[in-house]
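Recap quiz, item 2
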Amino acid sequence: MTSKTWAFEDFAAGQTIDLGTRDVGAEEIIEFASEYDPQPMHLDEAAGKASILGGLSASGWHTCAMFMRMLCDAFLLDSTSQGAPGVDRIRWKKPVLAGDRLSGETRIVATRESRSRPAIGLVTMHSELVNQRGESVFELENTNMFLKREAAA
Amino acid sequence: MTTDSNLDEFFDIGITVPLGSHTFDAESIKAFARKYDPQRFHIDEEEARRSVFGGLCASGWQTAAIWMKLNLAMPGKRWESPGPAPEFGPSPGISNMKWLKPVYAGEKISFSRIARSHRPIASRPGWRILAVDAEGADSTGVKVIQFESAVLVKTE
């Protein structure tokens, strides 16, 4: 048995999990972009304003990383997660701008047992982040592997 | 007048472009993961050894972000056709990202891109969408990451 709150059996289609909130600061946007995505609209307020994005905006990869942290804190760290083989789809729908407050939700789409690995179950999820104006900025669909409760040490 | 064949040439349609390589050292794996993906197999060697992965490995998001870093550092072709040079804009998203194999601390990963196709966007006159496949492979040539990317390009 496991002390983790979330094992495979705890997920059910239709369930939603609150991802909490995260404030997006200019400093963090610039720090991430300097390392991984040094395009002007991610590094400089004036360049961001002049761009199609309309302001200093987070790299889409930074939004993915911030989303991952929200997912970790919401339930993944307190789960029997065995990682994910990938992501089916990511949509960067609107710019994530400095000063934005993101909130979000993960909806469980489907669950099924692994055919090849009896200790594991697969959970398909659809997640969405919205900004403080209620606009949807990010969507992601993926399938994560979780140990069944009995298999978790 | 910007023609499709000028754009094919400019985008290197169908041609694999090597982006160079990146060595994932333990410290940078842990630094990224502490901020964005603090699962035990990304932040602690000992716990990672006992995990399903058997060793410290990079967050898949860091592997993808390194592709972006190297992709940006590798300039495209110079525009040598009539008309204004195309300008790259943001990406609407990606699909089918596969983390095929863990990237362990100390591994050197070689990345590449291959532009597949481009088409006009009905809702945004003057802009096209360019589809690009991304890939990373370890030193033995085994693929560790792949995904299908897209980017908006202003061509008129």
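DSSP finds four helices and five strands in chain A.
Chain A has a mean pLDDT of 96.
End of item.
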